[in-house]
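Thread: Helix-turn-helix domain protein, structure

OP (GT): Posting the sequence first so everyone is looking at the same thing. Length is 83 residues per the record. Can we get the structure tokens written out before standup tomorrow? I want them in the notebook alongside the other entries.
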Amino acid sequence: MQVTLKNASELGSLVRLARKAQNIRQDDAAGSIGVSENFLGKVERGSESVQWGKLFQVLDGLGLRLIVDLPDEVHALPDERDV
């Protein structure tokens, strides 16, 4: 299922939903993913101050993929010279 997200809170709700659908307690999920329970709680609450690297660690740990829909004008991913 693909879902269009508008903010961090909506992503956090989906992370919580995915964890609960897998019957994993928050502390167990955090431990198996390698983040603190406090951090996972921040993600699930949609905190806008989470670290990107750890966020992707959580998404990967719960089997979630983040897909970006680029407009047609974008032909390729930027290389480091374009940033």
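GT: Both are above now. Quick notes for whoever picks this up: Residues 42 and 49 are 8 Å apart (CA to CA). Helices lie at 8-21, 26-33, 37-45, 52-61.
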